Amino acid sequence: MLHYVTTNEGKVREAEEYLDEVRAVDFDYTEVQADDLGPIAARGAREAYAHVGDPVLVDDAGLFVDGFDGFPGPYSAYVEETLGVERVGDLARDRAEETGETPRAQFKCTIAYCDGEDFAATPDAVDYGDRRGHDLSADDRATASTTDSVVAGDVPVKLFEGRVRGRIVEPRGEGGFGYDPIFEHDGTTLAEMSAAEKNAISHRGRALATFAEFYAER
């Protein structure tokens, strides 16, 4: 049984599209400050595994705006609460207008998996606690040795990333949540899509699909 650390039933339903047995677990892990999603999700997965004692999934996601060097990124939830979604959209479009560029952005999601065991080498990153695994290039990840030393007290965490590109527009649509109304993909904002349409192209769905392929052979 996989335990998905979330209180969002929508995430669980999305995960069930790719995985047979998933159970939501409410666990308040430490959310470290980082400029990348990987270390945040990996830390959460370690704490969740220690708490649950069974295989766990933790995800972290954010909106990365090209014109702001990826900001708000891992700080998306905080920025949504303090600045607001519409204001982020206004700033991104204003910046794009100043530079003559299209206000492009991408949603990214990193899923962290931990079951207390090590992992065979694959193209997906492994976080060993000291972030060496996470910082490897894609080529190095594929050839990384499973005999690499592990920091005392840490367990390896496997990371899976999904992303979807689009552009920032005036808010449209009544569905979704968060930044969905200002994020347009192929002419439609995520807030204008049905749940099925959104799940089919979502950053989380793509990360889950990659994880599901790995987990089927785990």
TrEMBL record:
Family classification: Belongs to the HAM1 NTPase family.
Alphabetized UniProt keyword annotations: Hydrolase
SUPFAM superfamilies: ITPase-like
Protein name: Non-canonical purine NTP pyrophosphatase
UniProt-listed Enzyme Commission number(s): 3.6.1.-
Entry GO MF terms: hydrolase activity
Statement: the UniProt record of this protein carries the keyword Hydrolase: yes
Xref: InterPro entries: ITPase-like_fam, RdgB/HAM1
